[in-house]
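F.,

This is the one I mentioned.
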């Protein structure tokens, strides 16, 4: 699912269609994320050229291409372990701050899924919340700092609200993707307080944050993976 903030260029299930957080979920999510990032590579780089190093698109494309290969070649079919491997891959292949932050986030997602008693929507929520916690602990960023947190935090909040209201996981993922997109739009008037963009001071105002944008792409990929489940 793509929203107005992104330029356009596996999930398992039981026989009844109930969401199951399994190896197929991991494969579908990572493959969808890699495909969307590939489509948005030049746009992400354009955004990063304005307030960063002009390499976010290329780096994210390289990292998620490698992550797909990691998941497809792994003999371990534990979803938590697979996502931990995705995290490690992103750290080494994306590089820089984004690689460390996304890598840490996905590793925390994997650890939390490995500890889940029931592989359902609530487990997914807990894992994504833990991923956010890992990113914030490492980067010391909060909502409003003009970072990936500005998309990740509202996405998790929307997912939680929908599940608590009795919504299905697919609906929750759709709302999370929409909230992430809204979070990206909200970065435009902000002055960056973290990362390289913070060096620009007030000149960062009016620019869309590339990290928040790639986060919205990842949550959009999650929604697409759920929507395309068997």
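My design for it:
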């Amino acid at each position: 699912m793509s929203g107005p903030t992104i330029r356009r260029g596996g999930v398992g299930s039981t026989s009844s269609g109930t969401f199951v957080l399994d190896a197929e979920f991991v494969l579908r999510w990572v493959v969808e994320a890699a495909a969307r990032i590939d489509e948005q590579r030049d746009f992400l780089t354009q955004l990063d050229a304005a307030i960063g190093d002009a390499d976010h698109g290329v780096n994210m494309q390289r990292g998620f291409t490698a992550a797909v290969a990691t998941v497809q070649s792994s003999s371990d079919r534990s979803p938590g372990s697979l996502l931990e491997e995705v995290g490690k891959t992103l750290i080494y292949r994306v590089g820089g701050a984004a690689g460390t932050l996304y890598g840490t986030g996905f590793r925390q997602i994997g650890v939390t899924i490995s500890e889940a008693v029931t592989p359902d929507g609530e487990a997914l929520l807990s894992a994504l919340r833990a991923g956010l916690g890992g990113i914030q602990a490492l980067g010391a960023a909060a909502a409003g700092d003009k970072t990936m947190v500005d998309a990740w935090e509202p996405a998790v909040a929307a997912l939680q609200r929908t599940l608590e209201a009795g919504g299905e996981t697919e609906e929750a993922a759709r709302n999370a993707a929409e909230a992430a997109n809204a979070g990206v739009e909200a970065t435009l008037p902000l002055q960056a307080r973290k990362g390289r963009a913070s060096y620009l001071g007030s000149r960062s105002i009016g620019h869309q944050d590339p990290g928040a944008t790639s986060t919205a792409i990842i949550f959009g990929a999650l929604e697409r993976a759920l929507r395309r489940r068997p």
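Strands lie at 11-13, 19-21.

Talk soon.
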